[in-house]
Amino acid sequence: MFPEFSNHYAEWRKQSPWQLSLHDKDDAPSEDLLQAAWFHQRLLRDRLTTLDGRTVRVLHPGFWNREPGPDFRSAMIQLGTDAPVQGDIEIDLKNSDWKAHGHDSNPAFKNVVLHVVWQKGGTFVQPTLELEPVLDSPLADLRWWHGSDAARSYPAELLGHCCAPLRELSATQLSELLRQAALIRLQSKASQFQARARQVGWEQSLWEGMFRGLGYKRNLWPMLRLGELRSQVCPEQKRPSVLSLQARLLGVAGLLPDELSRQQASSDTYLRRLWDSWWREREVFADCTMPRSLWDFAGLRPANHPQRRLALMAHWLAEGRLSERLENWCTGSIEPARESSTLLTSLQIPKDEFWDRHWTLRSKDLDASQPLLGATRATDLAVNIILPWLWVRAVEGRNESLRCEIERRYFAWPSGEDNSVLKLARQRLFGGAAQKGLRTAAAQQGLLQVVRDFCGYSNAICSECRFPDLVKAWHR
Ligand code: SF4
């Protein structure tokens, strides 16, 4: 630690919520501090051994996972004389947390290759590394470091091998690279629609895409299954009401609660109406009703709850004019600055008395109205579903001017919601600094395509990745 100079600000800093959060019970460091120490390898790296006496070589500490699951993904470590392995790292205060936190029975933790703990104690079932004796500095110093920008930045040694050649590109070159990758992504999504349309027709392929898009990102598969059941749930010749469709979709999805809350009159009234409808029909759908366990609610924001998504879908299905609305939007003449807002308008539904004021079937009444579809989700649907579907239809119809117009809209679309894949890609490929060239949804799509094509086929240490050389050669 540095010598103690008189510094009032240092004293104030000790009172900040961040400093207070760095202590756990019994003055142990917080898991967040331990995770930062692991990520930046603030360790005596040549003295690491597991509790059963094997040396640990950390070839890559892994990528910090801010979502449910192990703390670090895709680390590379070598234990003793074994070959290096890739897997996840979980960090806890003690060995016993492995069981106490339920990791032993959670499939998300099955790829953990090293359990890193602050202090040993009790039995261990995983290869386990105790951190306390191998930190490179006293804990007080590490707490001080943890508050600095150095601890928050992405470690330079973890940058991708492509980071340096990408930095050599001008803003124009980088935009062009991402633009070309984004076009590949548009075409590959479009070709999926084309293949599916050959089997089930264009209309059904769009519905399935919209269901899948609303399942983003944890519930793609159950939502797609519901999309495949569309003609059973919503027959064209006898289109059910919105309420009846909400009951069917929620019932088939296994998302209708069995019991009333008896606390929320508005929720109970609506739930009773859904059950009145579903009760009469559920035998008919018995062979396709899904178990609730198919759905993943971990870390889900209330606005993204599948119950809300299905409520929205019921409105679109009851009206039955979704493809017509989208085609009108696509062929209409719209000022470039209003393309995204007019699409959102085209997708809007009449006000839903219940869902306008509830996140889920069980949630309390909301103070303010919350539309079932917001601009963020509309952008996601636009770049992943709607524009690829319209684009491939224009290609099939040999309508060159329409194809060019859809591409123009795709490339001009404002950027969408950030996500963990994009964040990591920005850090690995651009050192976290460069937002240049990433201001459109297409640029984000281009970056995701690079991750898919190159990072997805390499590993944390960029083994045998051809992308850096390709960028260098293109730059010359
Ligand atoms: S795997 Fe390839 S594309 Fe991904 S960060 Fe490493 S060098 Fe870059």
Gyration radius (Cα, Å) is 26 Å
**How helix-rich are the residues, as a percent range?**
40-55%
Order of helical and strand elements: HHHEEEEHEEHHHHHHHHHHHHHHHHH
- Structural class, please? alpha/beta
Number of strands: 6
How many domains make up the 3D coordinates? 3
Oligomeric category? single chain
Q: Given the C-alpha coordinates, what overall shape results?
A: globular
- Hetero ligands: iron/sulfur cluster
Terminal Cα separation, in Å? 47 Å
Largest sheet: 6 strands, mixed
Tally of helical runs: 21
**In what range is the share of β-strand residues?**
5-15%
- The residue ranges in which pLDDT falls below 50 over 5 or more consecutive positions are none
- Report mean pLDDT, rounded to a whole number: 90
Verbal overview:
This protein is α/β, with parallel strands linked by helices and 476 residues long. Helices cover 47% and strands 8% of the residues. The chain has helices at residues 8-13, 17-20, 31-39, 97-100, 139-146, 149-152, 163-167, 171-200, 202-214, 220-228, 230-233, 242-253, 265-281, 306-319, 322-331, 339-347, 375-396, 400-412, 420-430, 441-453, 467-475; strands at residues 56-60, 63-64, 72-79, 85-94, 112-119, 128-130. Strands 1, 2, 3, 4, 5 and 6 form a six-stranded mixed beta sheet that branches. A hairpin with a 5-residue loop joins strand 3 and strand 4. Helix 8 crosses helix 17 (375-396), helix 16 (339-347) packs across helix 17 and helix 19 (420-430) packs across helix 20 (441-453). The structure holds iron/sulfur cluster. Iron/sulfur cluster binds at residues 160-162, 428-429, 450, 454-455, 458, 462, 465, 467-468.
